[in-house]
Amino acid sequence: MTFSKLGAAITFDVEEEVFNWLCDSDRPIEVQDFTSPNILNSDFSGLVLKYKDKLKSHKGTRGLHGPFFGLDLGNQETEFQKLISKRLLTALDICEQLSAEYMVIHSPFNDWMNLNKRQYPHVQSSTISAMADILEAPLKQASEIGCTLVLENCDDTDPNMRLSAIQDINHPNLRLSLDTGHAFLSHSNYKAPSVIDFISAAEGYLAHVHLQDVDGYADRHWLPGEGSISWPSVIDALRNCSTKLHLVIEVRKNMHRIPNAINHLESLFDL
Asked: Cβ contacts of residue 208 below 8 Å, gap of 6+?
């Protein structure tokens, strides 16, 4: 297992002190301003230019959270597939401009699919087939610009479904992302495997991790240690991964506490 330095997901209005701290220590930065509905259908060039200027002093790894609202990667309607693919291609253009090494995309799998694998055996294969069609052009572009698409668990309750999708599509620029909070929510509410089991199920394909804490009720995006996740066991599981991991704290509040949270986590990781 190889860890990069721990980094953080940010938006442009993040506290200057936090942004400078990330840049001064060359930590990973994941840009999250381009996920909102319709933003990629508007003139976002000004924001990209502001980011390029803002990131001039940043030497660490960069990533981008791709669009996901309403963009179901398992959509089997051909016309919708074209639109979803187009949105991902636009986001990859931003990745190229910002020198992002990865882009986060969301998994289409959910608990209904898991519960009905035997009742409707075609659902998983048709979902993976739709993913392959939607991602064909984006993966080609990602390969050309040196960017990896990482497929994040959202409503997944069977981690093997995402793994099967990655293996079936079989593209070197498509790998797995794990969101610790999402995995814990699925475990708490839908009897899905634990967070550490989500990690072990991704072995060999895990490339990116969103570190966030929750209480088991909602997608809180709290700082690690503020919720119910057992962080020592998660860290041990991540240590056992054989792949290089981009580790990114993804929180919604208390952004000013990110430096202290990262320093604490790195002490647990022995980084």
From this structure: 63, 102, 104, 150, 152, 175, 176, 177, 178, 245, 246, 248
What DSSP element (H or E) covers 195? Answer: helix 195-201
Q: What is the pLDDT of residue 249?
A: 97
Reported as a single tens digit per residue, the pLDDT across 152-173 is: 999 999 999 999 999 999 999 9
- Is-contact 226 213, C-beta < 8 A? yes
Give the pLDDT of residue 2.
Answer: 61
In this predicted structure, what is the pLDDT of residue 107? 98
The pLDDT of residue 136 is above 80: yes
- 158, 118 in Cβ contact below 8 A? no
d(Cα 160, Cα 239) in Å, to the nearest integer? 20
Residue 173 in tokens? 């620029």
pLDDT tens for each residue of 27-82: 999 999 999 999 999 999 999 999 999 999 999 999 999 999 999 999 999 999 99
List the beta bridge partners of residue 121.
none
CA 55 to CA 224: how far, in whole Å?
Answer: 26
Q: How many CA atoms lie within 13 A of 1 on its CB side?
A: 21
pTM score above 0.85: yes
Pairing of strands 148-152, 174-179: parallel
Cα–Cα distance, 270 to 245 (Å, whole number): 15
**And the tokens for 176?**
């797995």
Domain parsing of the chain, residue ranges: 2-269
* Strand ranges in the chain using DSSP code E only, listed in sequence order: 2-3, 7-10, 29-31, 62-65, 102-106, 148-152, 174-179, 206-211, 244-249
Please give the CATH architecture assigned to the domain spanning 2-269. Alpha-Beta Barrel (3.20)
